[in-house]
Every structure is written in structure tokens, then in C-alpha cells.
Design a protein that fits this description.
Distance between the termini: 48 Å
Radius of gyration: 16 Å
Number of strands: 0
Helix content: 55-70%
Structural class: mainly alpha
Number of helices: 6
Shape: globular
Order of helices and strands: HHHHHH
């Protein structure tokens, strides 16, 4: 399980994009990061971040309604924190395209639509 920093970053970006586009859930993203980047079991990772294994299992299975602080705790080792995400995939695609081109996202007023 020895990924280079570039491979870790590429996987992280790929998973974040998939999550923003609604292709994978938050729990699926955490599980893949835990396994593919760190190679940790649930028990080991839960101990590492200071949560119960049951809580980690619930998050990875998208069960329950976890507090934002708990989500931030389990994603912190990967440099990710919880925040606002677009509901519609086309907005996420627009944001990602703008970021890739070095541009910024301009929100259109109703008159511009």
C-alpha cells in the first residue's frame, strides 16, 4: 500500500469529483480513502481518528445523521472537511471546469439566465 504523493492526490481529486457529481456517497469516499490510501482496517482507522468503530461503520454505510464535527474528524487525515456542495451535478461540472481553466465561478442573476 505504498502510493506516491501524486497518486494520493490524484485519487483524492478523483473521489472528490465523483462525490460532487453524486456518483459516490460520502461514506463510499471515506471507505476508499481509508483502504486505498492508508490500508487501514475500520478498527485501526477508528482508533487513529478517535471515534468508535460503530460510528465509522455508520458513516461508511451512510447510516444515521452524523454531526458535521464528526464528519470533519474522520476526513481530517485526508485534508477534507465538510461543507456546502451543489445539489445539481451540472453546477458541480461547471465549477470543476472553471477551476481546471483557472477561472472563477460567476453566479448568474435571474435576468442573465
Amino acid at each position: 500500500m505504498s502510493m506516491t504523493p501524486a497518486e494520493r492526490q490524484a485519487l483524492l481529486v478523483q473521489l472528490l469529483q465523483q462525490h460532487l457529481l453524486g456518483e459516490i456517497s460520502q461514506g463510499q469516499m471515506l471507505k476508499r480513502l481509508r483502504k486505498e490510501v492508508l490500508g487501514f482496517s475500520q478498527t485501526r482507522y477508528a482508533e487513529f481518528v478517535g471515534v468508535s468503530r460503530r460510528t465509522l461503520t455508520d458513516i461508511e454505510q451512510d447510516k444515521g445523521n452524523q454531526a458535521q464535527s464528526m464528519i470533519n474528524t474522520v476526513f481530517k487525515p485526508f485534508g477534507i472537511k465538510s461543507g456546502l456542495t451543489p445539489i445539481h451535478p451540472h453546477v458541480a461540472k461547471h465549477m470543476m471546469a472553471g477551476a481546471a481553466l483557472g477561472g472563477s465561478l460567476k453566479v448568474k442573476t435571474p435576468n442573465e439566465l
